[in-house]
Amino acid sequence: MKTFVARLVLATFLLALGLFGSSFPVNAAISSSPTLELDASNPSSLATSGATSWRDLVSGGTVAATLTGNAAYSSAGGGSLEVSGVSSYGGASFPASAVGTVTNPSGDMSLMMWVRFSSWNAEWNLLASHWFTNAGGSEAQNWHFASRISGGNRYLNLYTTNKTNMFGSTALALNTWYQVGFTLTTAGSLQFYINGVADGAVITGATRTANTSSQLWISDARSNCVACSINGNISRFRMWNSKLDSATVLNDFNVERENFGYAPFVTSASFSLASNSPVYRVLNTITATVPLNSRVTFYENTKIIPGCKRVVPTSTTAICRWKPATHGAINIRVSYTTSGSATVNWAPSANFFGNKRTTTR
């Protein structure tokens, strides 16, 4: 009987651990370690119905933002916070906190978020800020991140305590998922990023003053600022109390890119034939999967296949329309170079047997 009771207690403990101990899984796919992570694709972070808060996964949900205005869960992007600022407002608001906490970094910082714009406001499309103290818009300036109009297009924009109206260089489009963000050092060096790549040159002098009065907002929580919130979706929001290097930013983008409609990240090449039984002078198709921004060349028995030199892929797919020039033993090879590099890379080669044609030309 004692053994049975002990087993029952152990089973109950393990069940509780399974139900509660892992109820706030952190997205372990990215290589970096954010100090704050909101992930709307994870119901432990944002409930799929009746959500009133967006909970941080790193803290196990103890740090949470209150949803404001018309912000609500959407299935877009695999799960996102949908907000419209067209004639209203909406977002998520963390309370003011001490300097040095996860929502209020004291030194170097990085911020990255996956967003999709569905329409543009006339000027502001606020993404995140640590600038306002209340829904009425009182200010205690730290940093203010948005998409803002310039010359008819919308670009990333940042204000800090000591420098205003800094723009990125890439025009943003509607109905496209982007990973957008920035790194900012204590010395005031600002670097915007879009989809893992630096957006413009480093901007200097962008120093800021962390304070205990302003709140961390995702989108805009001001009830008196119509057409200030982003119109669209925010799927993931992360902050670090350090400056991410460019390689880490790119890696994190590549890990998640496929979730948001981008071609899968490919680091090497492979190929296949439409028919593994090629026939002399009969059309066959070689399809190669290669890294982005490659130029691809196809070879039959060390000779370049006519029409298949430096082929420009569609995304990560390159096609060679091949009519075997020989029969018998055939070796197929595929080489590629990537943008900005003269290095020739090779896919593993493959051997086939070319059959004689059974019909006359």
Annotation, overall tally of beta strands: 24
Determine the fraction of residues in helical runs and give it as a percent range. under 10%
Q: Tell the overall outline.
A: elongated
How far apart lie the N and C ends?
A: 87 Å
Biggest β-sheet, characterized? 8 strands, antiparallel
**Which architecture of the largest domain does the CATH hierarchy give at level 2?**
Sandwich
Structural class: mainly beta
Stretches where pLDDT falls below 50 for ≥5 residues? 1-28
Q: How many domain regions?
A: 2
In round numbers, the mean pLDDT is: 90
Can you tag this structure with a few keywords?
361 residues; mainly beta; Jelly Rolls; Immunoglobulin-like; 2 domains; 8-stranded antiparallel β-sheet; 2 helices; 9% helix
Account of the 3D structure:
- With 361 residues, the chain is mostly beta strands.
- It folds into two domains: 24-260, Jelly Rolls, CATH 2.60.120.200; 270-354, Immunoglobulins (Immunoglobulin-like), CATH 2.60.40.10.
- It contains two helices and 24 strands.
- The strands form four sheets. Strands 1, 4, 5, 7, 12, 13, 14 and 16 form an eight-stranded antiparallel beta sheet that branches.
- The longest helix is centred in the N-terminal third of the chain and has 20 residues, at 2-21.
- The chain is elongated and about 85 Å long.
- The N and C termini lie far apart (87 Å).
- 38% of the residues are buried.
- Residues 1-28 have low confidence and may be disordered.
- Pfam families: Laminin_G_3.
- InterPro entries: ConA-like_dom_sf.
